[in-house]
Design a protein that fits this description.
Shape: globular
Low-confidence stretches: none
Largest sheet: 2 strands, antiparallel
Oligomer: single chain
Strand content: 5-15%
Length: about 190
């Protein structure tokens, strides 16, 4: 897959790896995450909604069997929430509001089945991104460690934001992680 964000796309030449021609594709599914050559996450969000909705049926079935609420919560976390928020660190910061509302409506349906309030997708995303940026900061072997360490302010523990004008950049992992990390320092 070749990621190309130019308005006027140029036909790419054939790609050879170790002497063999490699097919160039526009979409690819890797570990359950749908990727496309524009890094548009619509197809991934649609697939997550579809999977989550189908697994909500099992949660309702368990409730009809009078399974205790603690077991329902464990089932929801392991089966439904894990599907809805799979790889959310990658795509969560660039989710469209329409897709976010759709996935949150699915979570609200799970709320009603469980009989309790469940964490909305935004909070799941923020919690996981914060965990990931902290792991990156603690692991000197990580490829982003040096980049993040260089963003640390001399005067405080805050991370300084990068300067960039493109919207695509602001909806990516690192700027979002820096904002979430700085906000966590304030609370």
């Amino acid at each position: 897959m070749i990621l190309d964000f130019r308005r006027n796309r140029v036909e790419s030449n054939t790609v050879f790896i170790m002497g063999e021609e490699v097919e160039v594709v526009e979409e690819y599914r890797h570990l359950g995450v749908h990727l496309d050559n524009r890094l548009d996450w619509r197809k991934n969000n649609k697939a997550a909604y579809k999977k989550g909705y189908s697994r909500l049926h099992f949660l309702r079935t368990l409730r009809s069997f009078n399974v205790c609420s603690k077991m329902l919560q464990i089932f929801y976390k392991s089966v439904d929430e894990s599907v809805i928020s799979s790889a959310i660190v990658c795509w969560g910061s660039s989710i469209r509001s329409r897709d976010l509302k759709r996935l949150n409506s699915l979570i609200k349906k799970a709320d009603s089945v469980l009989g309790m309030t469940v964490e909305p997708l935004e909070e799941i995303m923020q919690r996981r991104i914060l965990q990931r940026i902290k792991k990156i900061m603690d692991n000197p072997e990580h490829s982003l460690h040096k980049t993040v360490r260089q963003r640390k302010s001399v005067f405080s523990q805050r991370l300084l934001q990068f300067r960039c004008n493109t919207d695509r950049y602001w909806r990516s992992f690192l700027p979002t992680a820096i904002v979430i990390y700085n906000n966590s320092l304030m609370t």
